[in-house]
Specification:
685 residues; Alpha-Beta Plaits; Rossmann fold; Glucose Oxidase, domain 1; 7-stranded parallel sheet; 15 helices
């Protein structure tokens, strides 16, 4: 009995050890947190906020970044229990865990109607001396797009630096790339924690502003690349490559790292640095990657951009790549210009020729040896019912089944070009990349490693049907180079994030679309093209909006940095002075429903201008604008107007888009100022 008791006691202690030791270990594991601190609460005894933070909140070695421009506070590497204790400090307004985000992965100026020597482009002097801060994966400075030949001196208001590092010296900055920084402390603090995969892999990355991924170089040259003559990608899209603002200056902020994303604490530090450096515009193609928007007070991009906009910096961000599902748009704060991706009138056609003579149209940027004129056996591994095989995942294909054949691969899960590599490794001759229902007919041309053609969902189903019905199915692929004049264009890309905003449907998002499909631009030399191995009035509007959506003063201070008081009468979120008009009605409303929204316009043209309104009401709705005429004078530069949208429930048919579209236009005989109108039926979340 004594022996049994001893054994039981030992077993009991062993179980306790097995349970408690991992718990203790996990609580001692450090990860990074961001803390929003009441800036004015610093005791006068401390000379700086850093001294205060390291005396009352945490050890100096645990501080990653301190923020004092777009955000007030700090980020630090702490255990969960330390973070919880820090949050209890009365001067701490909020905290959130550091989160990893993902990147939103020549003819564009002409397609947009920009012409040399006339119009908007020349009148703005091609963006001369505008400083664009690009938050991305860095830059490959040797590209022709970043030459400073015949460029004037660096703008006097520039206060930034050229941060040196691995393979990046001070000489890599010039009068075009006027500044460069990199931010990695958030990554390094999260190395190996909870599967976040932080840390910098020195074998594939440069701990410097140099770009090892390609995305940053691409976005920088698209925005502000200089004229690059005789540009092409292996013969495709030959011509003169240039950015939309070729005379603008570039300031590079490397916040994203190859194969490991971008951490919030580093992004927020970049916002702080960019505004202090003196940028005029911030371009950021980063998001959550899951199609879900965080509340503004928990979203560092929303917080950082608010601080930037309040200091007169324009912030433009991508809408995300989680389309075509509804409510997939990200970066939806109303002070951000949210940009969706659209096509241009250029295409890179390729055709699939089936054994029965039928031809299926698709796209490709394959530039190797063609296979035109010879037919090869055609196979669809997905007919087995194995998902990994249908997607051509790594090690999913049986070489005996695909060797010497053209292989049909379904789009999704792994990168498009990676599927071709899987086919090639298994002995396949070529690939047909078929869209699924979610991607529809939206196609992207890729620089494939073997002859390959991307086709739409319907075409993919057609080819699969032929493969199943034919006794000996065969196919070939031909490549058509570059063609222009494609219509219709632009078309919203299938992958581009779609509205309405999941946070506030009454604010129309995305704001605009811009060329974002098959764009030729500069690239890093490290990897191949596949990528494989300060007007406060604008702010006093946004505060009113935050009050309207139910945020309290303390929550709003997390975003705005300053204490605020909401009006006694709660404002309407729809009355944010936004250029677009979104009227949202409850799906359960019956009979007649209406909403009246107010907008304020400012005349920036001729002093004595008179504008008359023209309304194109969404189908099944009535839209009334009062007054119908706006009369401006030298003294009256601002005027209000009211838009009443009325719907009769039985007359409303939303259709597949889940929304009705219209517009109102103010015209003075020379100018047209157009605002889109969107009517939706949606219940607040």
């Amino acid at each position: 009995m004594a022996s049994f008791s001893t054994t039981s006691s030992l077993l009991h202690h062993l179980i306790l050890v097995l349970i408690l030791v991992p718990l203790a270990f996990s609580d001692q594991t450090h990860k990074s947190y961001i803390f929003r601190v009441d800036y004015d609460a610093k005791p006068s005894i401390f000379p700086t906020h850093f001294h205060w933070y390291t005396s009352e909140f945490t050890d100096p070695t645990r501080i990653l970044h301190t923020y004092d421009t777009v955000f007030h506070g700090f980020s630090a590497s702490l255990t969960p229990s330390q973070a919880a204790r820090t949050l209890q400090h009365p001067s701490v307004l909020a905290s959130f865990e550091d989160r990893r985000r993902q990147l939103h992965t020549t003819r564009s100026p002409q397609f947009l109607g920009l012409r040399n020597q006339r119009g908007l482009w020349s009148e703005s002097d091609y963006g001369s001396d505008v400083i664009i801060g690009v938050f991305d994966t860095g830059i490959w400075p040797e590209r022709r797009s970043f030459s400073d030949l015949n460029i004037g001196p660096v703008p006097k208001n520039w206060k930034g630096i050229c941060q040196v590092g691995v393979k990046f010296s001070a000489k890599n900055c010039n009068k075009k790339i006027i500044g460069a920084r990199f931010f990695s402390k958030g990554h390094e603090a999260n190395e190996g924690f909870g599967g976040l995969g932080g840390g910098i892999n020195d074998t594939i990355e440069y701990k410097s502003p140099r770009d090892a991924d390609g995305h940053g170089t691409h976005t920088a040259s698209t925005a502000a690349g200089r004229y690059a003559f005789k540009a092409s990608f292996e013969g495709y899209a030959a011509g003169i490559a240039k950015g939309v603002a070729p005379k603008a200056r570039l300031a590079v902020y490397k916040v994203c790292w190859k194969s490991s994303g971008c951490f919030d604490s580093d992004i927020l530090a970049a916002f702080d640095a960019a505004v202090n450096d003196g940028v005029n515009v911030i371009s950021i193609s980063i998001g959550g990657g899951d199609g879900i928007s965080s509340p503004y007070y928990l979203d560092p991009i929303a917080i950082g951009s608010f601080g930037a906009v309040s200091r007169g910096v324009f912030v433009s961000s991508s809408a995300g790549n989680d389309g075509p599902n509804g409510m997939s748009v990200t970066n939806v704060a109303p002070w951000i210009m949210t940009v969706g991706a659209g096509t241009i009138d250029r295409n890179f056609p390729a055709d699939v020729i089936l054994g029965d003579g039928r031809k299926i149209s698709g796209v490709s940027l394959y530039s190797g040896l063609p296979i035109t004129g010879k037919m090869y056996p055609l196979v669809y591994p997905g007919k087995s019912g194995v998902l990994s095989a249908s997607l051509c995942m790594e090690n999913s294909l049986d070489p005996s089944e695909v060797k010497g054949k053209i292989v049909i691969c379904d789009r999704g899960n792994n990168p498009r070009v990676a599927k071709g590599l899987v086919v090639k490794k298994a002995g396949g001759i070529g690939m047909i990349l078929a869209n699924g229902i979610s991607n529809g007919e939206g196609l992207v041309g890729d620089a494939h490693l073997l002859p390959a053609c991307a086709v739409g969902s319907d075409e993919g189903d057609f080819i699969k049907g032929y493969t199943s019905a034919a006794v000996l199915p065969t196919a070939s692929i031909s490549f058509g180079g570059t063609i222009i004049g494609i219509k219709p264009a632009p078309v919203v890309a299938s992958f581009s994030g779609r509205g309405p905003s999941g946070m506030n449907p009454e604010i129309l998002k995305p704001d605009i679309i811009a060329p974002g499909v098959n764009i030729l631009a500069s690239w890093t030399d490290v990897v191949g093209p596949t990528g494989l191995d300060s007007d406060t009035r604008k702010t006093d509007d946004y505060v009113s909006f935050l009050c309207a959506i139910g945020y309290g003063p303390k929550t709003i201070q997390v975003i705005t940095r300053s204490p605020v008081n909401c009006p006694m009468k709660k404002p309407m979120a729809e009355n944010l002075n936004y250029p677009s008009i979104a009227a949202s009605f409850s799906s359960s409303s019956m009979g007649v429903a209406s909403k009246t929204l107010m907008r304020t316009v400012t005349n920036v043209g001729d002093a004595n201008a008179v504008y008359k309104v023209k309304v194109d009401a969404p189908k099944g709705t009535t839209v009334v604008v009062k007054p119908g005429k706006l009369v401006f004078t030298e003294r009256i530069r601002k005027l209000n107007y009211f838009v009443t949208v009325k719907v009769v429930r039985k007359n409303i048919v939303m259709g597949d888009a889940g929304a009705l579209f219209g517009s109102l236009s103010w015209m003075d005989g020379k100018h047209v100022v157009r605002s889109p109108i969107v009517v939706t039926q949606i219940d607040p979340l």
